[in-house]
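In response to reviewer comment 3 from the previous cycle, which asked for concrete evidence that the modeling workflow produces usable outputs, we include below a single protein chain processed end to end. The sequence was submitted unchanged, and the resulting structure tokens are shown without manual editing.
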Amino acid sequence: MTKLETLQAALTDVLGDKISHMKADLGRVTIECRAVNYLEVMQTLRDHPKLQFEQLIDLCGMDYSQYRDQAWDGLRFAAVSQLLSVALNQRVCIKVFADDDEMPIVESVTE
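The workflow returned the following structure tokens.
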């Protein structure tokens, strides 16, 4: 099993149905979660011994309205986080889409 496959298995085992979509490409794993689960997912990624993503290395907002110069079908705005586990030497990307395109808000990653 490759390192990415091992990470995908750990994410699936720990987060289960909190992951709405997962893919591995370009040497990294990207997961999507629903906004309602965002804080719990981020805390689990940090605190669970199989994951240990203790560093938030990047956080940005994305507007997918003209993604790759094509029509976008789905929610428009997302917060995208890059996490690093120094302990396990792995990275993961998390996407969470705002439920309302008119008022694109997602909760903070802290209470």
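The helical segments are 3-15, 38-47. We consider this sufficient to address the reviewer's concern, and the full set will be provided in the supplementary archive.
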